[in-house]
Write a structure and sequence with these properties.
Layout lengths: L6 H29 L12 H8 L1 H20 L1 H21 L3 H29 L4 H8 L2 H19 L4 H6 L2 H11 L8 H5 L3 H8 L2 H15 L8 H22 L4 H21 L1 H4 L7 H17 L1 H30 L3 H15 L2 H12 L4 H30 L1 H8 L1 H17 L10 H6 L2
Helix pairs in contact: 1-5, 1-7, 1-9, 2-5, 2-20, 3-4, 3-5, 3-20, 4-5, 4-9, 5-6, 5-20, 6-17, 6-19, 7-16, 12-13, 12-20, 13-14, 14-19, 14-20, 14-22, 16-18, 17-18, 17-19, 17-21, 17-22, 19-20, 20-21
Length: 453
């Protein structure tokens, strides 16, 4: 007799795995000051641009693992990707504690990034599979633990390092607690096949739902090369121009293949939503250095609001449709970022941070939920490519943001990243107009499949 699937245990274990991922984000935001310039209180004396480069693998490694995982998860099975995530996280955590210069910090972030990517590659489709009737709701609840972990990591940074004056290595060591717990919870559990496989959707059908797989992989490769500084663009606006060019070529590929053009648009939107959220929060220490309030507590405030919002996202998504949620998110994000760029004083910084938090709160899980519900034939690969897009864009923009800060200051840097949600407002208005009255696609329904084309 086949062992039953323990949905509750799998979901809790998945949340703990994402907690490990999110703790690494909070820890990088704090460790940035430890590795920073000595005249600014750092120990290792790295420039902001160099730190951005060393942090980059956490994002492009994330992307590599997600994309590879998306292509092979149905071949090697979800269980294999789950345990790959655990092992990579373990190596990354040990390496992080031992880091002492730009090279060792870079290597640590390679393993951390690969582990984080494996988590997303395995658990996003796993959650969608075990909760087929509540995909967006449960993906939002799963992704509570991304901001939730950043809250925990930020408060611990303030308590352990700022208040108790403990070493940064002890702070990093906290990560081993949820890591051990999620390993225990998954031990001996039956992990189901992905929804695409169990529903009989072919590999070719999955690629058709992606629309333009060749150009999408090419775009991610180019962005990866930019992230590791193999190639570079002289001006920040050129990165946006490049993204727009890839979208146009992806539409052409999709039309040639007679496939859907929806996924290439969602891929492009993900590049911008993820960077709006994560480039800003990863540089929070530097961006708000002159505000006069603990940057880590501001980060805890932002991510705390995000965690609460995601937990109660079900009713909001039901009332507004995922596209309505995304449109409002873009409006609030743009408002919050531009307010942060010119406000001064603790009170107004808190107000601007709250508006920004409400804006970025739903971006990541609702993007995944939209694809899972409206492009379900894209399967685990679609979710992996979307998550990979988000992370490779952050890896690409992190050093760009650092360079802008060093050349022009924090205000210009914030206003530069604020251009991203402005673009998203236009895109999401169009998306909302098209999809506000459409019901989610039921996988296996041929009529629904045709509506994707």
């Amino acid at each position: 007799m086949e062992k039953a699937i323990n949905k509750s245990r799998i979901f809790i274990g998945s949340c703990l795995a994402l907690l490990v991922t999110s703790l690494t984000f909070a820890m990088r935001a704090k460790i940035e000051e430890v590795f920073g310039p000595v005249d600014a209180g750092g120990i290792f004396g790295l420039s902001k641009e160099t730190i951005g480069w060393a942090f980059g693998p956490a994002f492009w490694g994330f992307t590599v693992a997600m994309v590879i995982g998306g292509f092979i998860i149905d071949i090697v099975k979800t269980k294999s990707i789950v345990w790959a995530a655990f092992i990579l996280h373990l190596i990354g955590a040990v390496s992080f504690i031992m880091a002492h210069d730009k090279t060792t910090l870079f290597v640590a972030n390679v393993f951390i990034g690969l582990g984080n990517g494996a988590v997303e590659a395995a658990f996003n489709p796993l959650i969608a599979t075990i909760f087929p009737n509540d995909k967006t709701k449960m993906l939002n609840r799963f992704h509570v633990w991304f901001p939730g972990g950043i809250v925990i990591g930020s408060v611990l940074a303030w308590l352990m390092m700022d208040t108790m004056q403990l070493s940064w290595q002890i702070y990093i060591g906290v990560i081993f607690i949820p890591l051990a717990l999620y390993g225990i919870l998954f031990w001996g559990q039956r992990i189901p096949e992905t929804e695409r496989v169990s529903s009989g959707v072919s590999y070719k059908g999955m690629l058709n739902a992606i629309g333009a797989p060749v150009i999408i992989i090419t775009a991610m490769t180019v962005m990866l090369l930019l992230a590791v500084n193999v190639i570079s663009l002289p001006e920040g606006w050129m990165y946006l121009a490049m993204i727009g060019t890839f979208l146009i070529i992806a539409i052409i590929e999709a039309k040639i293949r007679k496939a859907s053009v929806l996924f290439p648009f969602m891929f492009t939107f993900m590049l911008l939503t993820a960077s709006t959220e994560l480039v800003t929060t990863q540089w929070i220490n530097a961006l708000l250095a002159k505000v006069g309030v603990s940057q880590m507590l501001i980060l805890a405030l932002i991510t705390g609001i995000m965690a609460v919002g995601r937990y109660f996202a079900g009713n909001l998504v039901h009332k507004l449709n995922p596209t309505g949620v995304l449109l409002l998110s873009a409006i609030f994000s743009a408002t919050g970022i531009y307010m942060l760029s010119f406000v001064s004083g603790t009170a107004m910084t808190i107000v601007a941070s709250i508006i920004f938090a409400v804006g970025v709160c739903y971006f990541w899980p609702t993007m995944l939920g939209f694809v899972a519900e409206y492009i379900p034939h894209s399967g685990a690969l679609g979710l992996s490519l979307l998550g990979g897009a988000g992370n490779v864009s952050v890896a690409m923009f992190l050093p760009v943001m650092g360079k802008i800060m060093e050349k022009h200051g924090e205000t210009v840097a914030l206003q530069s990243v604020g251009a991203l949600p402005i673009i998203l407002i236009v895109g999401f208005v169009i998306l909302y107009t098209i999809f506000r009255n459409k019901k989610p696609v039921v996988i296996g329904d041929e009529a629904a499949t045709m509506s994707e084309q």
